[in-house]
Amino acid sequence: MGKSQQSKRRKSKVSKGQTYNGRRRADRGRRARRRARTERRRREHRQFRFRVKVVRYYRKLRKQVSEKRAVELTLARWR
């Protein structure tokens, strides 16, 4: 069956007065559904950034002092 023979499904027209309110309602619903996922991602991202900060600090210290001392200083800073 060719394209010309398929039935055309078009969006139904919505009066202008309804569009803004409908869009706002739809966006609010979408945000509510995504809220848990967003919070989890934000939490994971913060933890990752923290780990990166700790590792960078440790590696910088490691160049200056012994490994044991670098571990002690790193732990002391975040405890």
Q: Helical region count?
A: 2
- The outline comes out as elongated
Q: What number is the mean pLDDT?
A: 87
Gyration radius (Cα, Å) is 27 Å
Verbal overview:
With 79 residues, the chain is mainly alpha-helical. The chain has one domain. Helices cover 76% and strands 0% of the residues. It has two helices and no strands. It has helices at 16-64, 67-77. Helix 1 packs antiparallel against helix 2. The longest helix has 49 residues, at 16-64. The protein is elongated and about 75 Å long. It starts with 15 loop residues before the first helix and ends with a helix. The model has no long low-confidence stretch (mean pLDDT 87).
Short overview:
The protein has 79 residues and is mainly α. The chain has helices spanning 16-64, 67-77. It is elongated, with a radius of gyration of 27 Å.
Indicate the topology:
Elements (H helix, E strand, L loop, with lengths): L15 H49 L2 H11 L2
